[in-house]
């Protein structure tokens, strides 16, 4: 049987290196290589990662190391819990208001800046009062609010926003909110992409499958004091305190996904050199792509206002849907994957997550320049 070389070596899979998918996103080849080995046998254990008990000492150590790695990458003090939960970011849309909003008189402040913050809103409204502090819906989610447009309620139980709107390619390049109101952020698509003042957030959640691992696990970091008034009648599985007490092993957790996230955090720390180095690389990738849009004489039209452009997801359009289809077909034939825009808005989206190399973006912009020359 003739198998391609990369069947045994993910690092040599040229198509995977050009995967610009919005999610699940590309993972670093060095991590995929270790994942592949772990399917056969985890070093030091001698069992497949797919068959190791979540009650083993080995897995308890995996969880403990991953908690530490995330705390240290984010610079969080010891009063933050780090949880590995199931149900994706979508479950956090409900789990969070169940703990912090149920039975409250004052509304929580929510920003409506795009597709994903728009999914969080109705879930919170089902549980308690919500105020939309700003909405970009009328303008088609092409920009984020300025400070002058934002007035946060001092009595709100919390502020919720999405740091990076994955679908529209909009990213906040500053911190929002007031320091006397708990600040809660969905960072699913830019988690661990850059350094920041993360201890000013009371809670951050991010599923793994955009930037830090496979689908199946969601990282939640939260300050212990945040839960002091949480109701006592929550279902155990949906109660952060029960998950904290169990160190994320309340029931059978996604052992494989958690292990891959551990490998990604080791890679971030040891191979990349930490979040500042990751940020430099992410900025270089985004600069190259946006420069290509900006120097295309309007052939490629960016969706997001320049000041709010995402470093993670570059969303753009061509003159007609027909030309976009031709672009996507040619890109596919040239070895690129995952460039189709989200089904809700169409167009093109190039996702530049941590695992994507600068060389992949260099190849993409070369392809884009060539396509433009042919069609101008
Ligand atoms: C993809 C995405 C989600 C949805 O996550 P699921 O894990 O599929 O529930 C939520 N928020 C943001 C910012 C996302 O990018």
From TrEMBL:
GO BP annotations listed: L-serine biosynthetic process; pyridoxine biosynthetic process
Keywords: Amino-acid biosynthesis, Aminotransferase, Cytoplasm, Pyridoxal phosphate, Pyridoxine biosynthesis, Serine biosynthesis, Transferase
PANTHER family, per the entry: PHOSPHOSERINE AMINOTRANSFERASE
Lineage: Bacteria, Pseudomonadati, Pseudomonadota, Betaproteobacteria, Rhodocyclales
Modified positions (N6-(pyridoxal phosphate)lysine) in chain numbering: 210
Database matches in NCBIfam families: PRK05355.1, PRK12462.1
Cellular compartment(s): Cytoplasm
Residues where pyridoxal 5'-phosphate binds: 89-90, 116, 166, 186, 209, 251-252
Keyword Methyltransferase: no
Listed pathway(s): Amino-acid biosynthesis; L-serine biosynthesis; L-serine from 3-phospho-D-glycerate: step 2/3; Cofactor biosynthesis; pyridoxine 5'-phosphate biosynthesis; pyridoxine 5'-phosphate from D-erythrose 4-phosphate: step 3/5
A GO cellular component annotation in the UniProt record: cytoplasm
Task performed by this protein: Catalyzes the reversible conversion of 3-phosphohydroxypyruvate to phosphoserine and of 3-hydroxy-2-oxo-4-phosphonooxybutanoate to phosphohydroxythreonine.
Organism: Zoogloea dura
Catalytic activity: O-phospho-L-serine + 2-oxoglutarate = 3-phosphooxypyruvate + L-glutamate; 4-(phosphooxy)-L-threonine + 2-oxoglutarate = (R)-3-hydroxy-2-oxo-4-phosphooxybutanoate + L-glutamate
Amino-acid biosynthesis recorded as keyword: yes
One GO MF term: O-phospho-L-serine:2-oxoglutarate aminotransferase activity
HAMAP family reported in the protein's UniProt record: SerC_aminotrans_5
Domain Aminotransferase class V: 19-361
UniProt-annotated binding residues for L-glutamate: 55
Details of cofactor binding: Binds 1 pyridoxal phosphate per subunit.
One Pfam family cited in the UniProt record for this chain: Aminotran_5
InterPro entries xrefs: Aminotrans_V_dom, Pser_aminoTfrase, PyrdxlP-dep_Trfase, PyrdxlP-dep_Trfase_major, PyrdxlP-dep_Trfase_small
Descriptive protein name: Phosphoserine aminotransferase
